[in-house]
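Lab notes, practical 5.
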Amino acid sequence: MGKAKVRDAIATMQIPMDDPSGGNSVYNYKLTIQYDGGRYKGWQRLGGGENTVQGRIEHVLSEMVGYELEIIGCSRTDAGVHAIAQIANVKLKEYVPEDEIKSYLCRYLPQDISVTSVAPVDGGFHARYLAKDKTYLYKIWNEEYSNPFMRKYSMHIKQKLHVAAMEEASRYFLGEHDFTAFSNAKSKKKSMVRTIISIRFEAAGGFLDIRIRGDGFLYNMVRWMIGALVEVGLGNRKPEDISQMLLSKERGNTGNLAEACGLYLEKICY
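Output from the prediction step:
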């Protein structure tokens, strides 16, 4: 269906969802989104017309309904970071069948962004504030030779990593900690305390996959954590050094920042 026909169809649809905030009736939709973040400046819309995932989706949806709108994403992934299941919500002034929204997005979004599902939700659903925990996946290609097909979607480390040492080191991250040393967050008012629920390692077919699940993550936090674990895996640091890094709260002493291309937002739980 073309843009004009969609807007005409919207005008005839009136199926309200109550907004518990006390405002007018709204039509709230939950979006599940996948994207290749390689050519984007991250998820969050920025000023100056920067190319972002949020900005691209908002533009297409605004064209569909005929007015400017905002989508709320659960996680503000960094430039170059990918998503397997980013969750967002958007509130419209009118009801539009979810299959029509999905079809429209599939037609007009670039091929490196896909909306895999659209579902109507209660007006009070908020993709970011109601999330209980998130899981990030980091992929390392751990062979001497490069992987031509995954070079944009994994970090290549030629030296064999000592995975057992990395697993031992990862245990120091578990639980509640101040992650100041593992973040580039600039705000001094924002709490740097986060809880890591689990860290799992899986080595197969030349890849080392590391999954980190937590109640929330600071800017660049996962990439700094992975960078420190890689230092342990290469034998440049001891597993127990992670504990001292956390306690120091000093940035710049945690190793190298892992490449963005290997990081994926994999799962969000509500």
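Observations recorded by the TA: The helical segments are 3-10, 53-65, 98-108, 163-170, 221-233, 241-248. The longest helix spans residues 53-65.
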